[in-house]
Each structure stands twice: as structure tokens, then as C-alpha cells.
Amino acid sequence: MGLFDKIFGKKIEEQIEENQSADIFKFDLEDLDESAETVALDTEPQSEVEIVEEVVSDPIHAPLDVAAEQPIVSPELETTVDPVVAVPDPTEIIAVQETEPVAVVEETPEEIETKYEKSLKKTSKSFGARFNAFLANFRSVDEEFFEDLEDTLIMSDVGVDVATQLTEDLRHEVKLQNAKSKDDVKRVIIERMVDNFGESGLATELLMHDPLTVMMFVGVNGVGKTTTIGKLANRFNLQGKKVLLAAADTFRAGATDQLVEWSRRSGVEIVVGKEKSDPASVVFDAVKRAQTEQFDVLLIDTAGRLQNKDNLMKELEKMGKIIKREIPDAPHETLLALDATTGQNAISQAKEFSKVTPLTGIVLTKLDGSAKGGIILTIQQVLKIPVKLVGLGEGMTDLENFDESLFVKGLFQDLI
């Protein structure tokens, strides 16, 4: 049984049999106005935080003067050196004030499903409008039909690769040849699209490890990466886990202040470094403290300077070496934050970041403000990267685990 039948129940063969006598030229197209996309800007609070306690890192570490624009020695040239030299700059350990994390009342499955439906409404209406316009001109399943279908899918932000694969699969779909009505054609196409998506078989659950889970977050500036870390920290804290944040984006003005504010709001501690300091030093101190003080989860924020890919790659590689020296199987998750409102540009970012560092999952933010949620199809089917978290609102509790069934129901709610 394919994903379509699991979600929507009735098999397409049964529907087609009911419509065998239908006249394909007698149907009306409902006028659906394509909704204009509203880009929901994800704002991240900035405020001053009182530093309760400062702990200077081990003074015996030899300082390194590493600037963002300076090249970092490649690992091939370090083979004669003992494992990675670490911790160039003093870092601060900020013990946050006694602040209660935002309480979370456990949501019912129905409430979560409603969140998905509301967040995907713009995408569903946009996709539905284009799809119904395409079906209005349907006369027969011929080459022109497949060309128009492919164009419609591409304009609906499902991506060129997904559109091409789907149309090629449908060329050999017997059920499509037997379709006698607009509704039959629609259901065959959607069934194939959903089943192709379900065949990816990617694990979408976050990987948790005992005694310490290390998660590193990457992504360009402005996609909601810091916000995601703050919301996830709040979730873990309320689950009874001891959480530590690491502010390793030391180059962007305000990045550390934003993460410090999120640590205060979520009631967890944070390790920060001096402005423009080597991010690897922050990571080193954070890992050591997480181990020493028996934290359960370490969440690491990183810089997003994708335009300077070489330096970013060396920076992430150095962080990875430091983490692995202390915890060989870490980081357990390397999550890329993508802004759903940017559509195919988010796909380009995913392709570029996957060249820089191995990715274990995607966090798709601002899904509630986008008409381009169909990019999830491309992310999982073409890039083979699982979507693990989705942002379904601006509230502290609106970061949800990705559920492919709820996503599919929400995406096609205006068509099925």
C-alpha cells in the first residue's frame, strides 16, 4: 500500500470505476484566486542579559590569531601535528538568571494537524489554482498533456527534478490512460506524486544519544536558525534535559546577543566567545563543559557565510575535528536551516551546504508564511536529505517534528 492510500484511503482504481461513464467535457472549473505570498519575517529578539557568572577557559591554551579571511591550514598539512590545536580565545560561561522556560501544554494530534493545515494553506491554494487551471484544458492524455503538466509542477515550486521524474512515471501509468474525467486524472497524478514522496524512506526523527547529544546548526543569515535553536532548547529543557548552547557565530554583529537572549527565554546556559574570536574555541569550551557538567544536549550555532565558502568549509571542518576528538561519533545531527519563503533558492542553499559539510537533516522555517511548501518534495526526493523540523508559527511552541502524512494532507487539502 502506497502513502496515498494510507492517508486518503480509497484506492484510485475504485474511484475510476465509479467514473467510467463520466463525460470528460462536462465539468466546471472553479475560479481559484492564487494567493499572494506573504513573506513572514522571522524576527529574533535582542536585549541585554545580565551576566551572572563568568569563567575564563584554561589559561594554558596557546592563543591562535585566526581571522575569518585568513586561510586555515588544511588537514593534509597537519598530519605531523598532534590532534587539533584548540581554544585560542577566552570564552565566557553565562549562567542565566532564574527564568522559567515557556511552558508547553502537550498538544493533541488534532491540534498538530490543524497547525499543519493552517501553515500549508497558502501552498495548497497556490498549487490548487495552478492545477485546476491545467485541468481546465484537459482533453486527452497526449504529449501536450505531459508538457503542460511538467510546466505546471515547475511553476508550483515542486522543482524541475521532481516535475520531470513525475511526468516520466506518469507516461507509463496505466491508470492515467484509463482515466475518464477531470477528477480521475487529478487523483492519478496526486497519487503518484504522494507515493513517490513516500518512497524516499528517510528517517525524520532527531537522533538522540546518551550521555550527550551534540547538534550543530548551519544556514545563511536570516533564515531563522538562531530562533530554531532557542525553541528547541526550550523543548528539551521542558522535557527535563540539561541543555547547553554554544554561540559559535562570532563574526555576525548581534548573533551572540540574540542567542544569549534565547538562552534566557528558554532557561538554559550558554558558552560565548569574544567578538571576531575563533569559533572553534567556543566549540571546544562548550564540549568540555558539556562533558564535565553532564549536560544532556549541546546545541551549536555557526556562521552562515556561504558566499565565502572556502573559509566556511575550513571553519566547519575545524569545529568537526574538535568535536570528534572529544566525542568520536559527534556531531550526532548537522541540521541545515532553510527559509520556506525563498522557494527554489532554499534548494540551491541545500545543495551548496551539502558540499561544505555532511547534512543529517533540514529545518524548514517560516512554513506558515510561505506559498512554496512544495520544496519539501524536492528536498527529500532529489537531495535525499530528511526534513526533521518545521516552523509552523512564531510562538515558542510552534517548532514541530516533521510528519510526512500531515504534510501531504495539508499540501493537497484544496485538491482531494
Query: Which geometry do the CA atoms define?
Result: elongated
Largest sheet: 9 strands, mixed
| Percentage of residues in helical conformation | 40-55%
Along the chain, the helix and strand elements come as: HHEHHHHHHEHEHEHEHEHEHEEH
Strand content: 5-15%
Count of DSSP helices?
A: 15
Give the helix/strand class.
Answer: alpha/beta
- State the distance separating the first and last CA atoms: 18 Å
Number of beta strands: 9
Taking all Cα atoms into account, the compactness measure Rg is: 24 Å
Main sheet: strand order:
1-4-3-5-2-6-7-8-9
Low-confidence stretches: 21-89
Give the integer mean of the pLDDT values. Answer: 80
Structure description:
By secondary structure, this protein is of the alpha/beta class. It has 15 helices and nine strands. It has a nine-stranded mixed β-sheet, sandwiched between helices. The relative contact order is 0.19.
